[in-house]
Each structure stands twice: as structure tokens, then as C-alpha cells.
Specification:
Phage_int_M, 7 strands, alpha+beta, 390 residues, DNA polymerase, domain 1, four-stranded antiparallel sheet, 3 domains
């Protein structure tokens, strides 16, 4: 049997050699002086060895305790090799940072790049600096709760919820890959309460909408702003889509505007059928500003109208911030079209309310195109009726 004195006295030789203890435990002495604990055993008639650890990091007593534990497994017809490998995996070098990178790689196979980058940015900003170096089991629910609560209390409720969700996904994937047993995010469900987000201000009364379309007609701003508001009311796209719109994206003959996926960070192109009235607006734009580059350019060459242009115009026309905003054209159209009985699937598709993270959704960018074309013309005709006071 071995003793600490014998182990310390063991000197390296030109080739490795073994010093045996009991129950299959032995010490392997390497030519470089390293002393490694090994356990030899038989399972189902096959001879096997386990690497237990390195002396003196693992003491003689620790090595014997480990062998005793594994011998008990053998007595119950359980191979200790799988349990040992699993323990080394959980206690070893697989860090939270590596698990996060595995999650991002998994998302990259399933999601669009913009979504993956957003996830990477959140995890690397909030989780990696604080916990990235830890082994995967090293993150406690309490530590994670402290992190997300701090983010929430900093006024970033949405971010706190997203970070918590991403950590949950990280550990869920690790569990599926058998690199973790426990998800520290699981007990934290409900810890961060979502803050109810106030809807974008929008007009929902037809009489007030009629006043808006008439006010746009007589607005005394630049032609770019006046025509941009007219076009926005007819198409109810996002303002960033309107501002980045180029003539290359427009097919006047087919009465169609195709917004490239990369412009809107979506998984697919978005088709906007153009009503007769929308085409008339574009013809006015072409007459006044030409047919190259941006459809609605700002005052600076090559730059679009600014982000605040639409809202500034709305305020000057007497529509308050609690009543209408640039994004509100979307809510206005959605509310009134639904009230008018149009199919909500067609409305949502025209609003581009799909799951932007899913690559698999890319195939159906032209879904319901016939119905959406009819819907857009009906909406433009409805605005004309309101304008005329019908």
C-alpha cells in the first residue's frame, strides 16, 4: 500500500512506472516527474482504466475515496467510466463563454444574421464580462438574478428579459448536449415583470383620420415631406423603410415596391403592392426630383429625410404626441382595416408581422399577394372617401 511518504519519495526514471495501492488504485510516475492517479477495473469482462487526477492536487485520501465510490457503482453493475467522464465534463474546462458561443453557432444555423448578432451583442455585453470565465455549473440562480435585476433597475426592462431568456437558452442547449444538468435561469421565471409598453399614438376615429389626410394635402412643407406623408398614409410601412426607399426597389409597371431583406434586417424581402393613388404620388416625386437614388431625399445630397421629419410635420399640423406619430399610420391602418372586416392574416402579412428570426419563413414572401393588392387599393380608396367627406 502507498503512503504520502512513499509517493513523495518516488523519483522519475527514464520510463514511466507504476506504484500500486489497493482496489485497483495505482500511481503512474512519468519521466517528467508528473504523478498521475489511475484506477484499474473490469466491467463486463473487459479491462478498463480511469484517469482520476494528478498528485498532489488529488491527495492519496481523495484518490482512495474516489475509488471507493466507483467500486460501489461496480457492485451495482454500473460502469463508473460514464459517471467519471460526466463529472469531469461538468467540473472541468467547459465554460459559460464556450456554452454561449455554442448557442450562437446553433442560432447561426437556424436564424438570420441580424438576430444572431443581436443575441451576441447582448450576451457579450452583460453576461460574458461577469460570468464568461466560470465553468458552466458555476453560475448560481442568485448570481443570475442579481444581474438581470440590476439591468431592469437601470431602466432596461426589455433588455433584462432578453438576457434572462438567452441565458436560459444557453443552458437548455448545454443540457441537450449533456454538458449541464441544471439551468440556473429556470427558477427565475417571473422575477422580471414585463413593463407594459404604451402603444404608438395612432388615430382610430375615421373623422379625425379624414382631417389628417386633408391636412397633409395642404401642408406647406417641402415637396419631399408632403409626398412622403401621403405615401406613408397609403402604404403604412415603417418609417425606416420609407426613408431608405430607392427607385431601384420600385417597379412602376407592376405596381410593386420590393423592400430588400437586408435593408430591413428581415429574413426575406417584403412586397408592398402599390395602389393607383400610391403610383400617382410616385409620379409626382419623379416629376419634382427625378428617378435616381432615394425616392424621398433630404436636403443634404444622398441623404434621406431625417428621422424626425414626419413627426415634426404632424405637430405643425396640430396633431399631438398623444394622438399621432409617424409609426401611427401602421396602427391606424391595422385597426380600421380589421374593423372593416378584412382578413387579419392579410393585414398582418402586409404589415410584415412575421417572425423575422426564422429562416424557414423566407419562402412565402409573396403569400396572399393577390389579396394584399386588393386590400391596399381598398385602403387608398377609403382614404379618398374620407378626404371627400363621404
Amino acid at each position: 500500500m502507498l503512503s504520502d511518504a512513499k509517493i513523495k519519495a518516488a523519483k522519475p526514471q527514464s520510463s514511466k512506472y507504476k506504484l500500486f495501492d489497493r482496489d485497483g488504485l495505482f500511481l503512474l510516475v512519468q519521466p517528467n516527474g508528473s504523478k498521475l492517479w489511475r484506477m484499474r477495473y473490469q466491467f463486463l469482462g473487459k479491462r478498463r482504466e480511469l484517469a482520476l487526477g494528478k498528485y498532489p492536487g488529488m491527495s492519496l485520501k481523495d484518490a482512495r475515496d474516489k475509488v471507493f465510490e466507483y467500486r460501489a457503482m461496480l457492485d451495482n453493475d454500473v460502469d463508473p467510466h460514464s459517471a467519471h467522464a460526466r463529472r469531469r465534463r461538468l467540473e472541468g474546462g467547459y465554460t459559460i463563454l464556450e456554452a454561449i458561443d455554442d448557442l450562437l453557432a446553433d442560432k447561426a444555423r437556424r436564424c438570420v444574421p441580424a438576430h444572431v448578432e443581436k443575441c451576441r451583442s447582448r450576451l457579450y455585453k452583460y453576461v460574458v464580462p461577469r460570468f464568461g470565465h466560470l465553468p458552466l455549473p458555476g453560475l448560481s440562480s442568485d448570481d443570475l438574478q442579481d444581474l438581470v435585476v440590476a439591468i431592469d433597475e437601470a431602466g432596461k426592462n426589455h433588455m433584462a428579459l432578453r438576457v434572462l431568456g438567452l441565458v436560459r437558452e444557453t443552458y437548455d442547449l448545454a443540457i441537450r448536449k449533456r454538458k449541464a444538468d441544471y439551468n440556473p435561469a429556470q427558477p427565475l421565471k417571473g422575477v422580471i415583470k414585463p413593463v407594459k409598453v404604451k402603444n404608438h399614438a395612432r388615430i382610430t376615429r375615421p373623422a379625425r383620420l379624414a382631417e389628417l389626410v386633408r391636412a397633409i394635402d395642404v401642408y406647406h412643407g417641402t415637396w419631399q415631406v408632403t409626398l412622403a406623408m401621403k405615401f406613408l398614409s397609403l402604404t403604412f410601412v415603417r418609417q425606416k423603410e420609407l426613408r431608405s426607399m430607392t427607385w431601384d426597389d420600385v417597379d412602376v409597371d407592376r405596381k410593386m415596391w420590393v423592400i430588400p431583406a437586408e435593408k430591413i434586417k428581415m429574413s426575406r424581402d417584403h412586397i408592398v403592392p402599390l395602389s393607383r393613388q400610391a403610383i400617382e404620388v410616385l409620379m409626382d416625386v419623379r416629376r419634382l426630383g427625378g428617378e435616381k437614388g432615394l425616392v424621398f431625399p433630404g436636403l443634404r445630397p444622398g441623404r434621406p429625410i431625417s428621422e424626425g421629419t414626419i413627426v415634426t410635420a404632424l405637430r405643425s399640423m396640430g396633431f399631438t404626441q398623444d394622438e399621432m406619430c409617424g409609426h401611427g399610420f401602421r396602427g391606424t391602418a391595422s385597426t380600421l382595416l380589421n374593423e372593416m372586416g378584412y382578413d387579419h392574416k392579410h393585414i398582418d402579412m402586409q404589415l410584415a408581422h412575421w417572425d423575422s428570426r426564422s429562416v424557414s419563413s423566407a419562402y412565402n414572401h409573396a403569400l396572399y399577394l393577390k389579396q394584399r393588392t386588393e386590400l391596399m387599393q381598398a385602403w387608398a380608396d377609403y382614404l379618398d372617401e374620407l378626404r371627400a367627406g363621404s
